[in-house]
């Protein structure tokens, strides 16, 4: 019996290890089944999950509704913008009315229309005149500043002035002698 004890001990140890392995496998299987069951419950009964999350301080139904509304409004806006982009080329394809069509629409004997056109023209011409006057004043002010900034002590300036005076006097003499 002494020889068989080692094999009996090995077989008992193997039995014990296999039982532990079976218990571990069973525990892992139970954990996997619980996880799978939770996933299935979440898919089949989302309302209960929302109630649980609301009770636990998770997102409320109001927050979920707000999120859904925001997403839908964004979708609606993007869709309307894309529809406007499609409509614009159609508008461009319409030609402007011809001169004959405009004349048929606006008669020359319509006094109110003529007065309105005259008023628009007068307003625009006044605007143009004020704009032109402002440009001229700005230019005059700039010229005045430029003249004031001239350095009268510059020797080059004296040479240039002398040259201009000599040229003009020569021109005047030639003009008078003919």
UniProtKB/TrEMBL annotation:
Coiled coil: none
Biased composition, class Basic and acidic residues, residue ranges: 9-20, 44-54, 85-101, 133-142
Region named Disordered: 1-25, 44-101, 125-147
Alphabetized SUPFAM superfamilies for the sequence: P-loop containing nucleoside triphosphate hydrolases
GO MF entry, a single one: calmodulin binding
Pfam families, alphabetized: IQ
PROSITE patterns attached to this UniProt entry: IQ (PS50096)
Entry-linked InterPro entries: IQ_motif_EF-hand-BS (IPR000048), P-loop_NTPase (IPR027417)
Domain of life: Eukaryota
PANTHER family found in the cross-reference section: IGLOO, ISOFORM A, NEUROMODULIN
The protein's name: Uncharacterized protein
Native species: Pieris brassicae (White butterfly)
């Amino acid at each position: 019996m002494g020889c068989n004890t080692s094999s009996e001990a090995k077989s008992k140890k193997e039995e014990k290890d296999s039982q532990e392995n079976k218990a571990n496998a069973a525990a892992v299987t139970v954990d996997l089944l619980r996880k799978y069951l939770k996933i299935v419950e979440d898919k089949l009964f989302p309302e209960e999950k929302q109630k649980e999350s609301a009770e636990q301080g998770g997102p409320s139904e109001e927050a979920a509704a707000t999120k859904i509304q925001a997403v839908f409004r964004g979708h609606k806006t993007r869709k309307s913008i894309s529809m406007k982009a499609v409509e614009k080329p159609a508008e461009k394809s319409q030609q402007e009315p011809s001169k004959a069509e405009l004349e048929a629409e606006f008669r020359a004997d319509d006094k109110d229309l003529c007065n309105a056109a005259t008023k628009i023209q007068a307003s625009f011409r006044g605007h143009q005149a004020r704009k032109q006057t402002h440009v001229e004043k700005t230019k005059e002010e700039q010229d005045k500043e430029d003249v004031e900034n001239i350095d009268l002590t510059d020797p080059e300036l004296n040479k240039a002035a002398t040259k201009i005076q000599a040229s003009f006097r020569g021109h005047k003499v030639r003009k008078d002698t003919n």
